[in-house]
Amino acid sequence: MSTQQALNRKGETMSWEFRDGLIELVLHRTPCNEIGSRSLSDLELFCRTLEPPTQPVHALIVYSELKCGFCAGADLRELYEGSQSMEAEDAAKGVRDFLERIHRVLNLIDAAPMTTIAAVHGVTFGGGLELALACDLIIADKTARFAFPELRLGLIPGFGGIPRLKRDVGNSVVRDLLLTGRSFNTTKAQQIGLVSQVVAEGEALRAARSTAAQLAKFDHQTAVTAKRFIKPIPQEELKQEIEIFCELFSRPAVQAGLKKFVESKDAQPYLP
Amino acid sequence: MPTAEKTLDEILTLAAAHFKVPREKLSPDDDFFKTLGIDSLQALDLLTKLENHFRVELPDYELQGVSDFRTLASKIQVRL
Question: Which fold has domain B4-77?
Answer without folding.
Answer: 1.10.1200
